[in-house]
Amino acid sequence: MEKQHQLLSKIATNERHGENSPYFDGWKAYDSNPFHPTDNPDGVIQMGLAENPLSFDLIIDWIKKHPTASICTPEGANMFKDIANFQDYHGLREFRRAIAKFMERVGGGRVTFDPDRIVMSGGATGANETITFCLADPGDAFLVPSPYYPAFDRDLGWRTGVRIIPVDCHSSNNFQITKAALEAAYDKAQQDGINVKGLIIANPSNPLGTTLDRETVKIILSFINEKNIHIVCDEIYAATIFSAPNFVSIAEVIEEMDCNRDLIHIVYSLSKDMGLPGFRVGIVYSYNDAVVHCARKMSSFGLVSSQTQYLLATILSDEEFVGNFLAESSKRLKKRHSIFTKGLEQVGISCLKSNAGLFVWMNLRHLLKEQTNDGEMALWRVIINDVKLNVSPGSSFHCIEPGWFRVCFANMDDETVDVALKRIHAFVGEQKEREMPKKTNCWKKIFGSASHLVYLKRVLDLHM
Amino acid sequence: MVFKLNNHLLSRIASSNGHGEDSPYFDGWKAYDSNPHHLTENPNGVIQMGLAENQLCYDLIQEWLKKNPKASICTSEGLNEFREIAIFQDYHGLQEFRNAVANFMTKVRGNNNITFDPDRIVMSGGATGAHETIAFCLADPGEAFLVPTPYYPGFDRDLRWRTGVKLIPVDCDSSNNFKVTREALENAYEMAQLDDVKVKGLLITNPSNPLGTILDRETLRSIVSFINERNIHLVCDEIYAATVFSQPDFISIAEIIQDDIECNRDLVHIVYSLSKDMGFPGFRVGIIYSYNDAVMSCARKMSSFGLVSTQTQYLIASMLSDNEFVEKFIRENKRRLAARYRVFTYGLGQVGIKCLKTSNAGLFCWMDLSGLLKEKTLKAEMELWQVIIHEVKLNVSPGCSFHCLEPGWFRVCFANMDDQTMQVALSRIRTFVNNKVDNKKPKKNLRWQGSLKLINSPRIYDDFINSPHSPMPQSPLVRART
């Protein structure tokens, strides 16, 4: 091991890839025992993956009708050579135009995006890393409101050497980002001699599923202008908004107030809004010319496959399809969200009121033995191993309040949602049962045996 | 609101020129971009001979696609796979993809004793991404890799820019056909020691870009012994492996270490790609193949920054698992490259221009124009280059952009054009050389003399923000040709 440490770089041997976080731990349980409705009905249901396959049928239907969108069909094969050969890091112009238009539609038609500012990257993962490389030196820091997407630690900090400073948000005000919290985090960094280069916000938020209102965006903009630091807005869930209030992109707000546009950057992707994570379509959109140029040069490290650029350029230039897709996708997400949250409410589980995202931010504080991280981890282990749902504990999102869990609801079919809800109902019932041991235990039927219940009790007792 | 000045807004990386685009390697493209040759529409335009692309075998691919509609997730035959493929983002990559790439790598190397383990196949954003990733895994900022010259200019960016790693040239010269000698390696290593620079590894490109040569068994063994002795890594860029078009046969590092029990496999890593061998640079299929488990594991985690699109993984998986197609492609690719090389070097030979005689691979010639230099200096090479670009109207790449110590060498790509265009290029060269011979007095033609300095501003390349070359025919943006 020592030998390896000498042979490899520090980056290769530190833990900043973050894969030892519990966020990934639950996946191991899933991977070794994945749920299948018929083949493995007792397996672990994956609710830790924010995917959006709900509207694939629309895409597939479109592709059926448009064989020229592919360079592999008889109708499209004449384009194969030119496309396979195209490696210009500006990307296909039609691709950039289509993406810009799509982003405009997603922004409700209230913003315009310049195709010449569209820069590719290896998914949003690559985009976040690239923007960090452009804006900050090793040792510099970015402020990030918590709770935040766990992989930011890797994307922003692993190979760049940049630090993340959380800006803690609380349920007392529904985890809103306040000026006071931003100022406090910034001032503390100054005191610690850390150079803050920027602020990263995810809007809509992962894991909260909430969107920033106009007022908050303005406060944030005025804060970053004052401090002369960058703002990177990760808007990759923009089209997952399924109810009011509307999405307010940073692109919209900068038109309404004085700000230094050299500080404004957007990260986008098609992984969530269109459900195409495999295609690795990451976008860096900066209002700063130097950053556009730099990020574009860096895009060589993670360009979008020209085969994929071509397909997407064609699909996304079909305005009728795009309009229909966005409307339908939103509708389906809303329905799924409603079924799921209502199902949780039936057993007294509430979620943070949200209007976007592919998940809910579930409040299980009342089920914790103690309001601590340990208490949360104990509950989480039970949920994974006994309830057999892979959900993500709030601590993996750096949430300072224990007891919150992110639960994804869009990455499965209706029947599986049903199974998941049933298991949750059973679990909550069992929790109540524990407190009233004399009551007839009808939940035994769900869990199977008394010995199983004893085991469960023991597990919970261990963590008291 | 008063805004502070834009000082220090960006990172050091962003403000440096470590992206390497100030190199003349990219400079000649400007002349091409503003006046690209077209057989009928712009016959006097600049012919692009600075781009190492392999456009000779697309017909075979298209033929295969016609017969294999299931290879695409967009055909009616393949659409049922769309959902699963579009949602697959596991950084291990599709198993079928890894199997197919391992299969292709084995077939390309022809020696059935070598096998590549699909579980060691790690994706990256093209070979560009592979090189950067491997540098991130093996070296800390300030540490160095030795690289024999002349070498691919993109290495300066790929290995150094965001990693902070240094490159130390190991100079090779024509006295021995640019062979990589043990002596040169040892010298470079010692110099680094004296300068207090820690050498972490050696990067070799085999077949070589720009030389088009392959390393013989003896040299490879010597290299392996060198890196083992010094306990440094060996990164072998084998992206031109299938472009070896004549004898001797290609010998992969995989073969050498297979036989060599003394070699510490933890030091050996291969970079591969489909950009050159198959002519798919747009698909960004980069591969890292490391014999070191920790490196493989780390590189795989880093691959999240540049995975191959699953749409493309799926296509490639299908194509490269068709052994009949693969064997035919490899054979035909070699044959056409050999033919093209022969015609081109013969044409050059007719006007007394020699290419490196040991070349038997690659998509280019390493052309010796030292006889046309006024003096054997870099300045003279630059002058000659300006003439070639602006008067002869060929975008070739000057040796200095490959860090070649000897002035007068130029890399000329020949596989990215059709036969007729190649004939046009040859006739221009013939005319040029004959004129030069007839007219010993150099013409005073200020029109093209311009600036002889390396152009420093990165802005120059960025003038092409609106890259005019859209391959999509229905696009109004296809350049209007006068």
From TrEMBL, chain A:
The keyword S-adenosyl-L-methionine applies. Its EC number is 4.4.1.14. SUPFAM superfamilies: PLP-dependent transferases. It is an enzyme of class 4 (lyase). Residues 45-424 form the Aminotransferase class I/classII large domain. It holds the Pfam family Aminotran_1_2. GO terms for biological process: ethylene biosynthetic process; fruit ripening. The keyword ATP-binding does not apply. It catalyses: S-adenosyl-L-methionine = 1-aminocyclopropane-1-carboxylate + S-methyl-5'-thioadenosine + H(+). Keywords: Ethylene biosynthesis, Fruit ripening, Pyridoxal phosphate, S-adenosyl-L-methionine. InterPro entries: Aminotransferase_I/II_large (IPR004839), Ethylene_sulfur-biosynth (IPR050478), NHTrfase_class1_PyrdxlP-BS (IPR004838), PyrdxlP-dep_Trfase (IPR015424), PyrdxlP-dep_Trfase_major (IPR015421), PyrdxlP-dep_Trfase_small (IPR015422). It comes from the Eukaryota. One of its GO terms (molecular function) is pyridoxal phosphate binding. Pathway: Alkene biosynthesis; ethylene biosynthesis via S-adenosyl-L-methionine; ethylene from S-adenosyl-L-methionine: step 1/2. PANTHER family: 1-AMINOCYCLOPROPANE-1-CARBOXYLATE SYNTHASE-LIKE PROTEIN 1, BIFUNCTIONAL ASPARTATE AMINOTRANSFERASE AND GLUTAMATE/ASPARTATE-PREPHENATE AMINOTRANSFERASE-RELATED. Belongs to the class-I pyridoxal-phosphate-dependent aminotransferase family. Homodimer. This is 1-aminocyclopropane-1-carboxylate synthase. It comes from Dovyalis caffra. The lineage of its organism: Eukaryota, Viridiplantae, Streptophyta, Embryophyta, Tracheophyta.
UniProtKB/TrEMBL annotation, chain B:
Its EC number is 4.4.1.14. Gene3D superfamilies: Aspartate Aminotransferase, domain 1, Type I PLP-dependent aspartate aminotransferase-like (Major domain). Pfam families: Aminotran_1_2. GO terms for molecular function: 1-aminocyclopropane-1-carboxylate synthase activity; pyridoxal phosphate binding; transaminase activity. It catalyses: S-adenosyl-L-methionine = 1-aminocyclopropane-1-carboxylate + S-methyl-5'-thioadenosine + H(+). Pathway: Alkene biosynthesis; ethylene biosynthesis via S-adenosyl-L-methionine; ethylene from S-adenosyl-L-methionine: step 1/2. GO terms for biological process: ethylene biosynthetic process; fruit ripening. Keywords: Ethylene biosynthesis, Fruit ripening, Lyase, Pyridoxal phosphate, S-adenosyl-L-methionine. InterPro entries: Aminotransferase_I/II_large, Ethylene_sulfur-biosynth, NHTrfase_class1_PyrdxlP-BS, PyrdxlP-dep_Trfase, PyrdxlP-dep_Trfase_major, PyrdxlP-dep_Trfase_small. The keyword Electron transport does not apply. Its cofactor is pyridoxal 5'-phosphate. Belongs to the class-I pyridoxal-phosphate-dependent aminotransferase family. Homodimer. PANTHER family: 1-AMINOCYCLOPROPANE-1-CARBOXYLATE SYNTHASE 6 (PTHR43795:SF6), BIFUNCTIONAL ASPARTATE AMINOTRANSFERASE AND GLUTAMATE/ASPARTATE-PREPHENATE AMINOTRANSFERASE-RELATED (PTHR43795). This is 1-aminocyclopropane-1-carboxylate synthase. The lineage of its organism: Eukaryota, Viridiplantae, Streptophyta, Embryophyta, Tracheophyta.
